[in-house]
Amino acid sequence: MAKSNANDQRTTINEQRTTKKMPQDIVIRVLLLPFALLYGLGVGFRNLLYRVGVLRSVKFDLPVISVGNLSVGGTGKSPHIEYLLRWLTEYLDVAVLSRGYGRKTEGYRQVTTLDTALEVGDEPLQFKRKFPQTPIIVSESRALGVPELVKNNPQTQCVLLDDAFQHLAVTPGLNIMLTEFNQPFTREWLLPSGRLREWRNGYRRADIIIVTKCPENLTARQRQEMLYEIDPYPRQRIYFSRYSYGAPYDLLRPDLKRPFDLNTDVLLVSAIANTDYLLKYLGEQSRSVETMEYEDHHYFSEDELNDMLKRFERMPRQEKIIVTTEKDATRLELHNNFLFQHKLPVYVLPIEVAFCNEDEAAFREDVKGVLLDFKS
Question: Which CATH number fits domain 64-92+157-245+354-373: 3.30.420, 3.30.2310, 3.40.50, 1.10.1060?
Fold first, then answer.
């Protein structure tokens, strides 16, 4: 009964926050609309230059798969890149090329397991730690980065481009676009009024659209409603995926795992684009959840670490832990000495992509078809 009351209270608070935010969000979006239109004109003009051939897009003589989205963050690019790596590396020599967002270095760089997030970015470091035998490259320019990657890693048979949907300088052999189930691109506005990086009709470039973060028991009606809303072209295929969470492991001792239980209070420390899906999961797995949230890719300061320590110490119960995401862990580990000194139990929540219903087999057949039919 206590657990049910706690969940009901959190639900009520979230509903109140949503009710208060909605009118404010609409007002802010309307005020920013002129800037969004100017931004859209600029992006549209750039895309037009590519369509008429003033700006040239490069094709390569090996399969290139792009995974990205129309909006800013939150759709699950990293878990889907990892899904492709887990599958494709069994059969091919695959490499990943990423911009390395948020890194303090410049130019082309091959990631190593000894790098830090400051040097290569949080997501590329995460990829490398999980797939140490796979070449992971960071480069601001995809067009220059791919040939340099192949020159330095001549065994490469396929390149995955991370977050490259809106970067038209490279023409991929397969263009995969992600969009969230609860916040699809069809309901978004252009930056800075909303989260869209370009006009909604940019989805036409996609070969495959994956609707991510779906409910675990996705119904046929929900699928059909989403298909109707997206209204794909006949050549486009749409698949649905969700997240599967593993047992949290200790940031300082990854061999130590601690499954959730309903007697544990959780302090979630995160700097990702959208925590709604994660909070729902944590709320079902623990007694209570408190949050410390920052903007996506945020680097934690010493003051923020002290705030985290104080928040954690104020939590009254003995059964309590700090939970963070795998991406955030690459930035939190920059403060390992602080965490060790204060004996803070920081646990990392691993995540994998699982396709809904029978979608996985069809998705794999689609990707295999592109790889097998590729002609340089």
Answer: 3.40.50
